[in-house]
Amino acid sequence: MPPETSLAERASSASAAGSSEGGLSGGMTMVFALACGLVVANLYYAQPLIGLIGPDVGMSLRLAGLLVTLTQLGYGAGLVLLVPLADLVENRRLICLTLSGMVVGLIGAAVAPNAGAFLAASLVIGLGAVGAQILVPFAANLATEATRGRVVGNVMAGLLAGIMLARPVSSFVSHQFGWRAIFGVSAAVMLVLVALLRWRLPRRQPGGQISYGGILASLWPLVRDYPPLRRRGFYQAMLFMTFSMFWTGVPLVLSGSLFGLSQNGIAVFALAGAGGALSAPLAGRMADRGWTTPVTGVSIAAVIGAMLLAGWAGGAGALVALAVAAVVADAFIQISLVMSQRVIYGLNPAARGRLNGVFVAFMFVFGAAGSALASITYDIGGWHLTALTAAIPAVLALVAYGTELVGVRGSSSR
Fold first, then answer.
1. Domain residue spans in the chain?
2. Model confidence at 209, in pLDDT bands (50, 70, 90)?
3. What percentage of the chain has pLDDT greater than the value 70?
4. Which of 47, 56, 101 is nearest to 269 (CA)?
5. What residues contact 266, with CB distance under 8 A and at least 6 apart?
6. Is the dihedral of CA 308, 309, 311, 315 positive or negative?
7. Among 275, 41, 33, residue whose Cα is nearest residue 154
8. Which tens digit of pLDDT belongs to each residue from 244-259?
9. Alpha-carbon distances of 332 from 17, 142, 218, 273, 279, rounded to whole Å
10. Which of 6, 148, 207, 387 has the fewest CB atoms within 10 Å, i.e. is most exposed?
11. Is the pTM of this model over 0.70?
């Protein structure tokens, strides 16, 4: 059984429900989507540049994946330590504070003289980027129940576009001005965004009186008592590990002797993956119609197929097939993500910040492991080993999904 909701949390739930009575306008949805995309992009600017950043700050190829891993670990820490504050602290203020901290990290990355300084800055960038995961449940709280899937899908489309466009943007900028420029430019953009959000976002003060210690103490009971949180967290953790392995490893094979692409060429390739973000609004509508379970299974299976295609294409020099694999993998990982978030946000309206923090923390811990594993497997066995290893987490997700499908059929037959 789900944990009992305290009086304070019931007050918070009522406050959230009241804030969503009028729904969320299209204009405000666009503000949320834009902000999420710009913020989360900072997690991925370094990903296609590890071949440039690593030697410049004194890191070997085998350890270069840490340039991405530290950012994702910072993000994971922020999801556990900062995102749950959305159930306690006024949301607009919390978002602006986290983004301001990220500006400090971006400036540090832009001027980092060595690997230690860059890794420390990466950790701070990851901590600040959790502002995106405060914005998503904030939008869900403002939406009506009937439109929540659609609103979350639209906001996630912006967030996912930021993820996908981060790579080509950083590649283009680094080709013209050097890899440090992207971090300086992003710091300036984040300062403007903080001002915009301070002006445009409504205030949302959670109604509960629970303490920060109480917030953190409640995280384990949420994991323990909500099976859908554990199941959906596992699906997305596995798929995000696949996602991170693919996008950390693919710039290495694209810049290698078989394809020989420049940073601009890698940027154009990454634009193909950005098309996956277009699937998020469609996913939100499917979730609102109750298609979550079957669509999740199709999505996981499609990701496995995409990794197998990618492994063949990367060895055969088939650039178009590799791009198709990227689009398919990204689109279906994002569809599964929106489906899962629709489920998670319906579990306990008073704890959406904490639920989202725990859920996405699952993803990014395994995503960080995937980034580190990608450079190691590529160094040991090349692209074939990286792509094959990337398929394994998705296979594990499909096995877990099979147990859900059996459970659904068993309950319907009783």
1. 7-413
2. low
3. 88
4. 47
5. 48, 167, 168, 171, 251, 254, 255
6. positive
7. 33
8. 899 888 888 888 888 8
9. 31, 27, 32, 11, 8
10. 6
11. yes
